[in-house]
Amino acid sequence: EKTATAIIAAYGSIENAHDHVQELKPPRAAKNLAEYYDQAVLSKELATINVDGDVDCDPKEVSLGNLYTPEAFLLCKEWDFKNFLGRFEVDVPKNEAEERFHMIASAEEAKEMECSLKERAATEAIDLGCFWLTEKGTGQGPWLALALSDGRDTWMLPGETLLFEETETGKTRAGENFFKMIESILELFAGEPVKEGKEKGIRICARDLKALAKYLRERQEKAGTDGSASEKRTLSPENGFDVEVAAYLLNPLKSTYLLEDVAQEYLSLMIPSYIEVFGKNSVKDVWKEKPETVVKYACYQAYTAAAAPKILEERLTERGMDRLYRDMELPLVFTLADMETEGIAMDGEALREYGEKLAVRIKELEQSIYGQAGHEFNINSPKQLGAVLFEELHLPGGKKTKTGYSTAADVLEKLAPDVPLVADILSYRQLAKLKSTYADGLVGCLAEDGRVHSTFQQTVTATGRISSTDPNLQNIPIRIELGRQIRKVFHPRDGYVFVDADYSQIELRVLAHRSGDENLIEAYRQNRDIHRSTASLVFHTPFEEVTDLQRRNAKAVNFGIVYGISSFGLSQDLSITRKEAQKYIDDYFAAYPKMKGFLDGLVRQGKETGEVKTMFGRIRPIPELSSNNYMQRQFGERVAMNSPIQGTAADIIKIAMVRVHERLEREGLSSRLILQVHDELLIEAKKEELAQVERILSEEMKGAADLAVPLEIDMHTGDTWYDAK
User: What is the pTM of this model?
Assistant: First the structure.
């Protein structure tokens, strides 16, 4: 393109350039112009604007005026043109609700609001939308303002740091009583909750109910409230509604579930977003310049939290997920809130020693790698590493890219069994990540109470699995001993012990139940080694004569089938030909005859309805199945086979978490559920309660679902997480 532009600039036109085609440089340009001259002329004709055409109107009539109108603003919000929104100087068009937005400026006004809400709650059911406005707009951190709405009236209570200024006497007008007002209003949460079949009371609705539950629990603990944990809680599944969780269930493929998105999708209401109102400015600065804008933003958020639950509940019922939300996901909000509040104790000194041990081993691997390569180089540089492996050592399998050779894990893993240098490089990478992520990274995660408080994400994965962040304790490598040893730094408080329970092959057991395959079901009912049993059927070998290699291969097929593995993927995993891998798969389906029909049925269902479901009704949309791209459709088919299995397993562990958590509280125990990692639950058990805790874990985890095969768990105790695993 640059060459063509330069040629036209030099010769004035494409025609003149063609007259001098023999002179053109580079030769390739001359060849192309000579060969495709007709196309070039046609392109010029099509691109030339006809300025002599008959125009039947006055140009003034079609001149553009102000593009940044309220109507254009609404269209840009609807079409999600976020980059354009900052160019508008208009506000979101007024909604009727705005007429009943109020700002509380005194303790007297707050009392009036409180009385009004109590009077209404005595005669009718109220969905009270709650929104905490913080400096970063996350709903967490130092509380700055509270907005409440019952769907009709909406109130904002600005924090004293925002609203109240110093007077001549040195005191704020009402700010000194602000947090007392908040405490008084929070007492509403302990009032008569709205229950099924009742027509009065208050239900607290928020985008992030977990953050509010944690705040209330911490407030109660600081106040030293008497009574059991269940009596102390003023917010529960009975009187709470989590807007974000409900929206997530209806569409688990979205990345965020902000209240402005919920307002647009379910209320057909355009409300200002945090970015639109505050941008990169602080809440306090915007408050000083445009307080009315902050009030409007906070009130709209609370209004949406109050108005959305009714329609969200209707949609959940229409999609058959009302029980899933009510009995599993909503109670889980409070289970996770308590787990985050409890945290897990960590030994800082043990962590430092662990980091030093990693550093020594990393240094040893560095020297080994340099020795085998013949010189030092930057092991972390893909370009330098690729040159060493594929240019200097001439190793096979090099994939040349624009920046050098690929040194991705899948490339190196094929070489590692035969090349010690590559095996060392993979170990080096693993340990370096361990050191940076955990040995170094966890230091900053230790709170003042000596515990790590991970954040559990309930609305992230499309399959329904829980994830954790800050820190992520679910991705600790357990295949290598040095990875497992990180668990040694986590320990129970004095007088307690860890109890760790892990589901045994839960996804395969779910597969057995949902497929209805008699051979697989019978193997589990007989408590046989499922991988050896599969090997016996697939390789036509007596059960007692199955070799370790056959069992290993059968295990890869067992778990591969759950994830919709292809012959290519299996051949890569087992280092065999695709033909051999396909025979393994064919023999597997012959051994378990109902399996293929079940998996094909899931794909068929996905293509017909655009989604698949778990045993408990959780929906997983699969838009890839209707893609024009073959690879996308293949991915969609694997998702269709896997999601109902993995999602059902995720549902079962959630049910177990809720039941274990609630039973520990109901029986008045001091022991607490503190961690969940995939199919594993960790309890910090008081030593005197150990037998009771083990019984609760066993009964609730095994009884979390009624399957055609028994749910089994592996349970261990220990003085560190490592010992309990």
Answer: 0.83
